[in-house]
Structure formats: structure tokens, C-alpha cells
């Protein structure tokens, strides 16, 4: 394709996009004013657009990609599965690919989590966790345990159950009349502590608030739902060490299940395969999606213990069945990709390389401390949030309408990296496969983009 043909094709696609597509989480009036960056191909940790430009995939194509794009082992696994069967159902039938995937998955899970319920998105995985926890208590005769506790700033997906346990006002407030009531506790957001306290003197007062709710609702709470170590979508809010362990103790003390949503943190992002490992915590239910297939195909899993599983067992007529399922649950193509991805984790030590890479990224981001409009850099493994502020001393935020984060990512594109902000937080969540040199380049582009964009705000 010569340059003219490439431009014409780009123009045609641009027009068709603007005519027909409605993009998620996007103000479409803004979108229709701008020329879209249209991803056409990928190679390793780079995305290539319709005009032939290459960009570092700085957010792993929405926190999914793990080993890079077009990985020979994953491509081969999906192709081989295509030669057998693209889809068959898990309702009333088993399938080779889903069995092998579940078996491999359990090898990677914290010991004690042995049952895998497949679905196709992070939101469905959480929806399942909520219903599973609820029904578990009902089946055990604990019928008063119908309530849920979650954190402000939590994000668990966009279906109504997941939104109910979510806690981001901007996304969730409008749907309030459609949601079930959830008790929300203050989030451990130390840079802007909602309780106006500071570590270590506070003694993690925010965790005390969780306890206060559990005690006030004694015997009524089915589960506490949290993102472990990092609340991703609220701006990479990192939790202090010991916080998650404390939540586990509180759940044990008050008889609630602990649901850890590892849709974002799972598969090596925080430096261990699952974030809960760093706190020595075994959740009752753990959810995952995104990186499970290496970022190739939609597959999610809600995993749990034999104890929870067994409460659903009974004679057919007792109707203890978990009446829940999605058509594409355990899709064989997605399962084949996941098995291949997990095999790379096991055989290549993909996760083991993360701490050194995270340290290299932290070093490359250190100059952010000198930028006048960077309030805080939060990092856990390869999850990074850089909070932009109008005034560093007062922590004054940029107004929503200014779209400070968006301006930064437009600058980053010019310099060769694709990022996606969360409000005023610039997020980096590179594929685990990025080399230290690529991570350093990504950090350099990000800081240059922040300087350029904030200079004009
Ligand atoms: C922690 C967490 N849970 C759930 C979800 C929802 O996942 P999905 O978009 O696949 O429904 C996300 C998405 O970012 C997430 O970060």
C-alpha cells in the first residue's frame, strides 16, 4: 500500500467510525471533533495505526496485554484450537480446552482456590462473585446475610451488580436508583485521606471504618468486595501494607466472605501472580479477566474454595443449583489462549521478571518529583498512576472540564506512546513483556508529555 492509498483507507475508516460507532466511556461530541487514532496492527509491545505510525502500548490495550502482541505461542494455540472447534458450550457439556485451562489455572492460584467458574468479562466475573456469595449464605441457612460492603473509589465493571459494589461517583451516581444498597467504607487513599489522617499515626483508621460497618451490620453482611493492593480505575490508589490482611481478619471475625477482584491486579501486574499473595491473604472468591488470556480474547474466571462450592451441592429437587451462566462461558478459543499464556508464565518465569522491571520503571520516573504539576506518583509493580495537580503545595485539582489527563495522552501520542488517563491521573500499565529499555522510553515520553501539556494549562 503506498502512502496515498494508506491515507485514503484511513480517511474511509475515520468517516465510517464517526458514522456508526459509539465508543465506551467517551463523550462522543468530543470524539466526533477529533481525528481518531485507528489501530490497524501490532508487533511485540507496539501498536501500529492506519497511517503506519508505531506506538508503545503503554496501557496494555486497556490493562490486558501481558506478553506483547502477536506472540508466536499464543497465536499458534488459537490457530490450533480453530482447527478443532471455535465454540461449544459449558452448559451440560464439557470441553477439552476449558478443562485444560481450569487445570492450568489452579496451578497458578493461591492454594485453597480450586473451583473455576468461567465467564467473559471482568464485570461478569464480579457479578458471579456477588451472586455466589449471596447464594452460599442462603444455602447454609444464613438467610440474613444479604448485604454487601465495598470501598469508595472501587471499580468492578459496568453491569448493575458490579456498579452496585462500585464506588466512583462520576461513573456510578446516575444509576443509583437501579442499584442495590451497598455499605461503602472510606478508601485508603493516603494522598487525599478521606478521614483527614496520615500514616502511620492513623493506625489505618479507614480499615476501622470497615470494621464499624461489619459490626453495625453484624450477621447481615454476605461479603466484602475489594480490589486488592491497588484500586485501579479510581486512579491507581495504592493501599498501605497490611491493609488487605486487616480486611481478611475483619471478614473472618464477622463471618463475611472476602471477594478480591483481581481483574486489574491479576497476572503479574503488581509483582506477584496475584496481588493477594503479597499480603498472604486467601480470599473466599477471586475474580479475574483481562490478562488471563495474555490479553488476547475475552475470558474471565470467578474462582473459589471447595467450601463455597460444596454449599451448592444437593439433590436435584433441592434446587441448590447456581442458576447462572453466560453463553460464551469457557469459550474454547479464549481458553486455548489462556492456557498458552499461563504456560508461558510457568515455563518462562514471566512474573519473576516484574520486580526488576518495576524498579527500572520507578528509576525512570524519578524525575517526576521535580515536575511542578505532579502531585504524587503511585506505583505497585507495573501499575502506575501519576496524579496531576494544579498546585502541588495545596494539592488543588485541575477542573474536570480541562481534561488535563487527556491533554497529556495526546502529547504522548506525538512522542510515540499510547496511554489512557483516569481523569487527572496519567496511567502506565505496560505489558509485562516490555524490556527495561522500552520501559525507560515509555517513562521518558510520559514525563515529556506531562511537561508539555501542563505548561499550557
Ligand atoms: C478491578 C476491575 N474489575 C472489573 C473490571 C471490569 O472488567 P471488564 O471491563 O472486563 O468488564 C475492571 C476493568 O477495568 C477492573 O479494573
From TrEMBL:
Its EC number is 2.6.1.62. It is an enzyme of class 2 (transferase). GO terms for cellular component: cytoplasm. Its cofactor is pyridoxal 5'-phosphate. It is found in: Cytoplasm. Pyridoxal 5'-phosphate binds at residues 122-123, 261, 326-327. The keyword Cytoplasm applies. It catalyses: (8S)-8-amino-7-oxononanoate + S-adenosyl-L-methionine = S-adenosyl-4-methylsulfanyl-2-oxobutanoate + (7R,8S)-7,8-diammoniononanoate. Keywords: Aminotransferase, Biotin biosynthesis, Cytoplasm, Pyridoxal phosphate, S-adenosyl-L-methionine, Transferase. One of its GO terms (biological process) is biotin biosynthetic process. Pathway: Cofactor biosynthesis; biotin biosynthesis; 7,8-diaminononanoate from 8-amino-7-oxononanoate (SAM route): step 1/1. The record marks 25 as: Participates in the substrate recognition with KAPA and in a stacking interaction with the adenine ring of SAM. Belongs to the class-III pyridoxal-phosphate-dependent aminotransferase family. BioA subfamily. Homodimer. Catalyzes the transfer of the alpha-amino group from S-adenosyl-L-methionine (SAM) to 7-keto-8-aminopelargonic acid (KAPA) to form 7,8-diaminopelargonic acid (DAPA). It is the only aminotransferase known to utilize SAM as an amino donor. This is Adenosylmethionine-8-amino-7-oxononanoate aminotransferase. It comes from Anaeromyxobacter dehalogenans (strain ATCC BAA-258 / DSM 21875 / 2CP-1).
